[in-house]
Amino acid sequence: MSTTASPTGLADPDELDLRLPVSYLAEGHSVRSWLLTTDHKRIAILYAVTITVFFFIGGAAATLVRLELATPEADLLRADTYNKLFTLHGVVMVWFFLIPSIPNTLGNFLVPLMIGARDVAYPKLNLVSWYLNVGGGMLAVAALLLGGVDTGWTFYVPYSTVFSNTWVSLTVLGVFTTGFSSIATGVNFIATIHLLRAPGMTWFRLPLFVWAMYTTSLMFVLATPVLAVTLLLVFAERTFGLPIFDPARGGDPILFQHLFWFYSHPAVYIMVLPAMGVVSELITCFARRKVFGYTFMVYALVAIAVIGFFTWGHHMFTSGMSPFAALVFSFLSFIVAVPSAIKVFNWTGTLYRGQVGFESPMLYALGFVGLFTLGGLTGLFLASIPIDVHVQDTYFVVAHFHYIMVGASVSAYFGGLHFWWPKITGRTYPETWARFAAILMFFGFNLTFFPQFIAGYLGMPRRYHVYPPEFQIWNVLSSAGAAVLAVAYLMPLGYLTWSLLFGKRATNNPWDASGLEWRTTSPPPRQNFFGSPQVQGGPYNYHPEGVAPVHDQPRLPSQGSLT
Amino acid sequence: MSGADVEARLREPWSDLETDDATAFARQRDGATFGIWVFLASEVLFFGALFLTYTAARLANQEAFAAAGRETNIIYGTLNTAILLTSSLTMAVASQAAEKGLFRRLTLGCLAATAALGLAFLVVKGFEYREDIEKHLVPGAHFALSQAPAQIFFGFYWLVTVVHAIHLSIGIALVTRLTIKGWRDADFLKENPQVEVTALYWHLVDVVWIFLYPMLYLPGRSG
Predict the structure, then answer these.
(1) Rounded to whole angstroms, what are the CA distances from B96 to A111, A507, B93, B206?
(2) φ and ψ at A453, to 5 degrees?
(3) How confident is the model at residue A224 (pLDDT cuts 50, 70, 90)?
(4) Among A119, A505, B34, B168, which lies 20 to 30 A Cα-Cα from B196?
(5) In B, which residues are within 8 Å of A535 by CB distance?
(6) What is the rounded distance in angstroms from the CA atom of residue B38 to the CA atom of residue A192?
């Protein structure tokens, strides 16, 4: 650590030299200092840059898909191109945006800060994981540039192994590689949370975001290797002709589906648990209330992570499964809704009698609760076998998982990004624009995906580029919503970039929030803290125990409003 | 170890802990061991998925798997099992000796023996692969056995033995690295967590083989 403070590291460049260490952003400006960094905060930024690129690649593919679907006929894309576009959209969004989104950006940045550590347990491994992610992404993008893949993001055999003439192997290799990035991150977070908590930071004083990262990491470590094997088997069958799933030689394609969903169903929880963690932080801060039922929130996270491993079979109700197995998987899929519901009720309970502020991160968080509830409840439709048989492979399913993966997870990601933006960058963003974007995102999202529930229930199958004209009204609504959503996603790119250059300098704790991450400068120094943090109480100490909340008091700027 | 030695070996973030160097070093050691255990849990799921695939395919095609199992070379397989089990012994001795920090020559000798046994395994495996290829046991148009599902057995055989060999090669590289570094620097191995981490990884690769041996070499051979 440099002891000679430079004024550039201070919150205000005109301030006097207070002998504070420089911020992590000011420690070296060369490309090398970024690409070879072992600072968890800088690695978080590296991840943020790559996932933003992938988000807009995947988003561009979705835009073309929605444009094509505006009319029942094929007038923009050929069937082949359409297949490649929705595959590209799925592969990029799932593996190169959603899986790393919150854990690798906000998680990397915040986990050490929230537990009072200097860095993650294995800083070099952390950097390696970013390179693995980028390497895997490059392979997938190379496959796209060479001609694309048309299997859908699920790579179902035997189509992917025997019939498809597209760049399946290269894409599969890309996803395989990026899987190791997930495993490395998972190992790192688990070890960090176990071994590097500050004195006094007991397990049940951890912020819920850290708990969310912990449970997510368990899934990273235990689910991702199964995906790796599954993709390896597809790769070996295509490239070396080693038949494992080939039905012509006695292989079982359904086995592939079991293996694939053993990863890919927990993967949904990998996407939504971090989002739940973010939203828990946001709601308690902007309701100025201790989170309702902290311990149950923790148990709910753990329960979702554990039960989430045993529900994968509900993806195969229609592909051949014994009635007994179907019954068990259906039951377990219903059961996983219980801890999810506990969380929704507890977030609502936190709002009760809170002094709720509607700053932009809170708007995203409230949007999350609404969209997650809708996505979760429609998930129960799909867990119920008779309804699942009716809506299997229709737009109902598409709408359901987009409510969870995009509506919920992406809202939470944006909410978290706005909430911690002053801490990460040391700048404040234009709040009015941010609120407008948050509201627009909510409406755009519902306009895009709610009509798909109806179209799907009426029988419109997914993955076709043409459809009967009676479904056009729902598709036009959906495509119009997609345009709104595209604007809402582009707006933060604009104003957040603007804020990096022209935004006002942020104070250390602009929201008057309670976590350890706010007990340091904005942006933090390389060592995260001045001195060593000691934790003396539980999280979310927003109002003292036994004291009634103060009503009708206008919030002072120092108490956490930027407006 | 002297204080300066400990300080030189501390890495971030352990070097920044607010404790004395000896405690920080102990926690760094624990951290390394803990990390490899978590990683091994991940590896168990990796190989577990492969074993599950094998089990499902075998239950569906029992006769073909028995016929295919009889074609593998049990001599090479058994020899390799003996070699690998012995290597785990030498690895365990090296790990314990390094932890005590008293027996540098024993540690180095056992590490070298471990790497050599690992190489011997690969050599034997190479001979076995040559024989398999000569006997047309590679799935495809010229496959030797008439039953189609036997190709699944050999598809699995090739995939899993190659994946195992890759894991073993990584292990050999790690052990060789420790041997060379320990030979050049007299203090390198003493209390170094890298020895235990490498040993744990080595044992996992060994345990995987203990599962693979009955799966690949024993079907169809009972009675």
Answers:
(1) 35, 53, 5, 18
(2) -60, -45
(3) very high
(4) A119
(5) none
(6) 12
In the three-class reduction of DSSP (H, G, I as helix; E, B as strand; rest coil), residue B43 is classed as helix
Q: What is the mean pLDDT of chain A?
A: 91
Q: Which of A556, A382, A496, A545 is nearest to A48 (CA)?
A: A496
| 3-state class (DSSP) for residue A525 | strand
| Encoded tokens for A84 | 């490649």
| pLDDT tens digits for range A104-120 | 999 999 999 999 999 99
Q: Which residue in chain A has the smallest CA separation from B51?
A: A229
Residue of B nearest to A221 (CA): B42
The whole-number pLDDT of residue B187 equals 84
Rg, Å, chain A Cα set: 24
**pLDDT tens digits, one per residue of A386-417:** 999 999 999 999 999 999 999 999 999 999 99
In A116-241, which ranges are continuous DSSP H helix? Answer: 123-146, 168-195, 208-239
Chain A residues within 8 A of B17 when measuring between CB atoms: 118
Q: Residue A262: its chain B contacts at CB < 8 A? A: 49
CB contacts < 8 A (A, B): 118
Are A255 and B53 a contacting pair at CB < 8 A? yes
Closest in A117, A186, A229 to B13, CB measured: A117
- Quick check: A1 pLDDT over 50? no
- Chain B residue numbers with beta carbons less than 8 Å from the beta carbon of A122 are 31, 35
- A68-91 tens-digit pLDDT: 999 999 989 999 999 999 999 999
What residues pair up with A461 in beta bridges, in sequence order?
A394
The pLDDT, as a whole number, for residue A12 is 52
Closest-CA distance, A29 to chain B, in angstroms, reads: 21
Site of tokens 């009675």:
B223
Chain A residues in contact with B151 (beta carbon < 8 A): 243, 249
- Chain B residues with beta carbon closer than 8 angstroms to that of A252: 56-57, 60
Q: Is the peptide bond before A386 cis (omega within 30 degrees of 0)?
A: no
Q: Which helix (H) or strand (E) holds B56?
A: helix B21-60
Closest CA to A170 of A185, A162, A180, A160: A160
- pLDDT of A129 strictly over 60: yes
Q: How far apart are CA B92 and CA B60, in angstroms?
A: 39
ipTM: 0.93
For the beta carbon of residue A8, count every other beta carbon within 10 angstroms: 11
pLDDT of residue A294 exceeding 50: yes
Query: Whole-angstrom Cα distance, residue B18 to residue A198?
Result: 10
The pLDDT of residue B5 is above 90: no
Q: Which of B34, B42, B152 sits opposite A221 (nearest CB)?
A: B42
Contact criterion met (CB < 8 Å) for B16 and A232: no
pLDDT score at A546: 67
**B139/A236 touch (CB, cutoff 8 Å), yes or no:** no
Q: Which residues contact A302 (CB under 8 A, 6 or more apart)?
A: A211, A215
Q: Tokens 């189509």 sit at which residue?
A: A159
Whether B101 shows a pLDDT value over 80: the answer reads no
Categorize the per-residue pLDDT at A560 as very low, low, confident or very high, splitting at 50, 70 and 90.
very low
The residue-averaged pLDDT of B16-42 equals 90
Amino acid at A354: G
Its sign, for the CA torsion A177, A179, A185, A190, is: negative
Residue of B nearest to A38 (CA): B12
Residues of A within 8 A of B16 (CB-CB) are 118-119, 527
Interface contact flag, B155 A223, Cβ < 8 Å: no
Q: Is B137 exposed, middle or buried (0-12, 13-18, 19+ CB in 10 A)?
A: buried
Query: Do A250 and B61 count as a contact with CB atoms less than 8 A apart?
Result: yes
| Residues A86, A503 contacting (CB under 8 angstroms) | no
Residue (of A258, A265, A133, A259) closest to A186 by Cα position: A133
